Amino acid sequence: MRSIVIVSLLLCLPAFAVDKPAAVFISELVAKTLAANPEIRFYEAEIAAAKAGRATAGRLSNPELSLDLGHKRVRGGDARAEGLAYSVALAQPIEWPGRLGLRKAIADRDMALAELGLERFKAFLAAKVKTLGYALATQQESAAAAAEVADRFTSVREVIVQREPGGIAPALEAKIIEATEVVVQRKAGEAAVEMQKALLEINQLMGRRADTPLQVKRAEFPKPSATTLAALLNTAAEHNYDLRVRRSELEQQGLKVSLAKNERHPTFSVGPSISQERAGERETIIGLSLSVPLPLWNNGQPAVNAAEARRIQAEASLQSSLREVERQITEAWLIMQTQQNRLDGWKPDALQSFAEAAQLADRHYRLGAVPLSTYIEMQDKYLEATEAINATRLEVLRAALDLEQLIGKPAVKTQSQP
Fold it and tell me: Which band of pLDDT confidence, cut at 50, 70 and 90, is reported for residue 258?
């Protein structure tokens, strides 16, 4: 039977000023977070910057205009003349064939890396919200159980106090129950604080004030689908975000090596020129100018060596990342399988049966059919079992969501409605 857990947080707000928000399912909360998270704009701006760089990567360099202006004086025999002299040249730098194409390809990799960064952050954000949402459910359930047991102890203690004392035993029983009540109330308070911390973090991820009211619903914990470790490793080798980044960086670095080799060839500057001198007579020269740098002291080989070294580093980084991803996947898979096997070994209605047993112990203790030690032990074990089962469920979910991040594809299908 499916249950719906509703958790809420109203911090530092007057009751008359707060409209109770509508409860949302975790899937809706994920969508709202992805639409409102402020950090997403950072990655979107990174994509915009990469696109701007791509737009300029394939353009030719601007033409160069040079102007020389002077005064010419001629003396020879009895003749003397002077006048204006000037020259104008317009030159267009021409890259070596293939250089612009390489720059375009490198800029394309920058765009791909920026888009991949946004995709990876959105996947991380969705998994974070899911984990927080289900953590809220477990903490609320633990807090409710602790509050329930604390109320029982309070009620029993009040009954004992109202009875006529019949010796030292009833007084000691009252103190034992009072001390146990203090411990249970502390557990309830801790669970409530952890629940509020999770809600505060969700508000932060959504870009909202920490004290913004929020209600979250959830369905039962989804059970991860059975997948072999080999299948997960194969999927991760193709879709893992870190590996995709490393492969793209390696491809980009290979292009940079080719670009460094291409840049060893000079860039020509070609264009028309005109010069004129007016010293007695007008002399005009129209021609074509060509300029080429001479690679005497810098032949570009150090740049090629540096680019090749960085390519080797990128290749080593890819191999190291692959081994690290395989280790993380194996670890998360083992945790998920181990904890899921534990959950499967427990009865589906284990929490309900423990709750009923705790109620039964309370009722019979009031009737005098159950000793105090059994009564307290049953209440404690009920709380411990609730915490253990919920913690195990959350570990399974976290491991499954970690796998989803590591393989780069959804690994767990969560139900959005009860």
Answer: very high
